[in-house]
């Protein structure tokens, strides 16, 4: 596991360095809607990550947001998001990340979320705790709803945004405040670090979640998935948020 973590960290750092060399022109294509974008740098980052994984571990499987899809012969599969927070990246706003997880038959074993623009390297090994730049992490708990700082994100598809308005209306008068940062993986790691108290969002994909979910759980948080909705927080606030958002 230590070796897998070291490899995941070194690959995430290389992808982060590639992404920090921003080209003068970003070319964009759209995905699930007109405002859901992918750049040539998402593709370049995924290509680098896939090549590095395969040169070190040719029998591992890979699932990537930009199309990587290889079956595993070893029992290990890498789940990668080459840029989480592409809209931040596009606008040159800090906070985007590279998310790399390795899973086996029983779930994620190693998670790395690297956000170079905010100097954060979040890491975890299953059963081994969670860390930011080598320092151990513990989520905030217990937090009451009326003191909670909540991170969330908004979907690129209108019908889901409509549901998010209802969720927002339900909570906004009863919490400390919202933060909307742009990378789901970083938001969930911020729950792990106690930088926010809780997080929820609709429409996450496996690659947005895999690494950060392990990091948050290893920091003592509960991460639960209810259809399209993901909720992450310390146990007390998680119970309250689940009650509010799922009724
Ligand atoms: P992305 O940058 O990799 O697309 C935005 O709130 C967060 O949700 C980002 O982490 C974004 O990841 C993720 N996300 C993924 N697919 C999404 C979608 N269809 N709509 C909204 N957000 C999405
Ligand atoms: Ca992405």
Describe, in plain words, how this protein is organized in 3D.
The chain is about 35% helix and about 30% strand. It has about 250 residues and is an alpha+beta fold. It has an eight-stranded mixed sheet, with helices on both faces. It has a five-stranded mixed sheet with strand order 12-11-13-15-14, with helices on both faces. Strands 1-2 form a two-stranded antiparallel sheet. The longest helix is centred in the N-terminal third of the chain and has 19 residues, at about 1-20. About 45% of the residues are buried. Bound molecules: adenosine-2'-monophosphate and calcium ion (CA). Adenosine-2'-monophosphate binds near residues 84, 201 and 205.
CATH architect. name of the largest domain: 2-Layer Sandwich
Q: Which structural class matches the secondary elements? A: alpha+beta
Report the count of strand segments: 15
Strand content: 25-35%
Kindly give the count of domains: 2
If you compute it from the alpha carbons, what radius of gyration comes out, rounded to the nearest whole angstrom? 17 Å
Topology order in helix (H) and strand (E) letters: HEEHEEEHEEEEEEHEHEHEEH
**Helical content (DSSP H or I, runs of 4+):** 25-40%
CATH topology of the largest domain: Fructose-1,6-Bisphosphatase, Chain A, domain 1
Small molecules (ligands, ions, cofactors) in the structure: adenosine-2'-monophosphate, calcium ion
Secondary structure tally, helices: 7
In terms of topology, how is this protein built?
Blueprint: H1 2-20, E1 28-30, E2 37-39, H2 40-56, E3 61-64, E4 69-70, E5 77-84, H3 86-91, E6 97-104, E7 107-115, E8 120-125, E9 130-132, E10 135-136, E11 149-152, H4 158-171, E12 177-179, H5 184-193, E13 198-202, H6 206-218, E14 222-226, E15 229-233, H7 235-246
Parallel strand pairs: 3-5, 11-12, 11-13
Antiparallel strand pairs: 1-2, 3-4, 5-6, 6-7, 7-8, 8-9, 9-10, 13-15, 14-15
Helix pairs in contact: 1-2, 5-6
The site of adenosine-2'-monophosphate has 17 residues, from β5.
């Amino acid at each position: 596991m230590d070796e897998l973590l070291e490899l995941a960290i070194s690959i995430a750092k290389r992808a982060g360095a590639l992404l920090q060399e921003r080209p003068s022109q970003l070319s964009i294509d759209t995905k699930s809607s007109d405002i859901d974008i992918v750049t040539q740098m998402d593709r370049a980052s995924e290509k680098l990550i896939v090549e590095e994984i395969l040169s070190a571990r040719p029998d591992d499987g890979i699932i990537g947001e930009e199309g990587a899809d290889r079956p595993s012969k070893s029992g290990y599969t890498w789940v990668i998001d080459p840029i989480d927070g592409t809209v931040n990246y596009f606008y040159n706003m800090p906070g985007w990340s590279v998310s790399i997880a390795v899973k086996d038959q029983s779930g994620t074993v190693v998670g790395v979320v690297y956000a170079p623009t905010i100097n954060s390297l979040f890491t975890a090994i299953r059963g081994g705790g969670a860390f930011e730049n080598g320092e151990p992490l513990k989520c905030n708990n217990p937090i009451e709803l009326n003191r909670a700082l909540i991170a969330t994100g908004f979907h690129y598809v209108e019908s889901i945004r409509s549901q998010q308005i209802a969720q927002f209306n339900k909570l906004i008068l009863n919490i400390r405040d919202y933060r909307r940062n742009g990378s789901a993986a970083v938001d969930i790691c911020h729950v792990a670090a106690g930088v926010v108290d809780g997080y929820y969002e609709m429409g996450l994909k496996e690659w947005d979640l895999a690494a950060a979910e392990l990091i948050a759980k290893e920091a003592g948080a509960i991460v639960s998935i209810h259809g399209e909705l993901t909720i992450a927080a310390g146990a007390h606030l998680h119970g309250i948020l689940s009650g509010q958002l799922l009724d």
